[in-house]
């Protein structure tokens, strides 16, 4: 009986390792966390390649993009969305553990379809000069707010970009994570992401 239990535990451990590995590979390949929650638009299943000149996916975030530094938004780039793209959405969040919802660090939507990048240090205004709007972060304010995990803890921060077949009719004052996600459903043509880590100090 003990041999059977030992073999069963060993098999479960192998399955757990494969599941963990698959999740990590999915993150590294750029699969957005939110992609599981959002039904794509008809024919929408393309992948966006999302990058940053400030860090590499899976790497470490510099202090200047956190509350321990300048608290400035990082530069983000992506390849052009598929035909029919009308706007882009960027959502940055800490998926964390043992929480019902992630910690939201940045929501910016109605980015023009002609854009393929966001410069660093974007103002924390609800409405930007290019016509894009910024929703509510974890503090309930507009714009980017950098990470500040507890000392000794390293958290992953997922930067996700979505190409939509429409613009979102949302007032920035009401554009929290749930409102933006609900407005995006059935409108996603393509998506991509990268993950960067930061350790609390």
Which terms would index this structure?
201 residues; alpha+beta; Phosphatidylethanolamine-binding Protein; 6-stranded mixed beta sheet; 3-stranded antiparallel beta sheet; 2 helices; 9 strands; disordered N terminus
CATH superfamily of the largest domain: PEBP-like
Strands, count: 9
Question: Order of strands in the sheet with the most strands?
Answer: 1-9-8-4-5-7
Total discrete domains: 2
Q: Which descriptor suits the 3D outline?
A: globular
| CATH topology title of the largest domain | Phosphatidylethanolamine-binding Protein
Radius of gyration: 18 Å
CATH C-level class of the largest domain is Alpha Beta
Unreliably modeled segments: 1-31
Largest sheet: 6 strands, mixed
End-to-end distance = 49 Å
Describe the structure.
This protein has helices at 2-29, 177-184, and strands at residues 46-47, 50-51, 76-78, 87-94, 103-112, 117-118, 133-134, 154-164, 188-199. The protein has 201 residues and is α+β, with helices and mostly antiparallel strands. The strands form two sheets. It has a six-stranded mixed sheet, with helices on one face. It has a three-stranded antiparallel sheet with strand order 2-3-6, with no helix packed on it. Helices cover 18% and strands 26% of the residues. Residues 1-31 have low confidence and may be disordered. The protein folds into two domains: 1-30; 31-199, Phosphatidylethanolamine-binding Protein. It is built from two helices and nine strands; from the N terminus they run αββββββββαβ. The longest helix has 28 residues, at 2-29. The N and C termini lie far apart (49 Å).
């Amino acid at each position: 009986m003990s041999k059977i239990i030992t073999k069963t535990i060993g098999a479960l451990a192998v399955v757990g390792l494969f599941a963990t590995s698959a999740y990590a590979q999915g993150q590294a390949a750029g699969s957005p966390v939110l992609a599981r929650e959002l039904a794509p638009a008809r024919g929408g299943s393309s992948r966006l390649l999302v990058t940053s000149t400030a860090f590499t996916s899976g790497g470490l975030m510099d202090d200047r993009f956190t509350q321990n530094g300048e608290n400035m938004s990082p530069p983000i780039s992506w390849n052009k969305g598929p035909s029919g793209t009308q706007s882009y959405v960027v959502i940055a969040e800490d998926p964390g553990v043992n929480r019902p919802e992630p910690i939201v660090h940045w929501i910016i939507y109605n980015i023009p379809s002609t854009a393929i990048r966001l410069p660093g240090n974007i103002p924390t205004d609800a409405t930007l000069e290019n016509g894009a709007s910024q929703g509510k972060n974890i503090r309930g304010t507009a714009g980017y707010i950098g990470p500040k995990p507890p000392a000794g803890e390293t958290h992953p921060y997922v930067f996700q970009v979505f190409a939509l077949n429409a613009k979102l009719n949302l007032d920035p004052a009401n554009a929290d994570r749930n409102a933006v996600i609900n407005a995006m459903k059935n409108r996603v043509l393509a998506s991509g992401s990268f993950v960067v880590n930061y350790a609390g100090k």
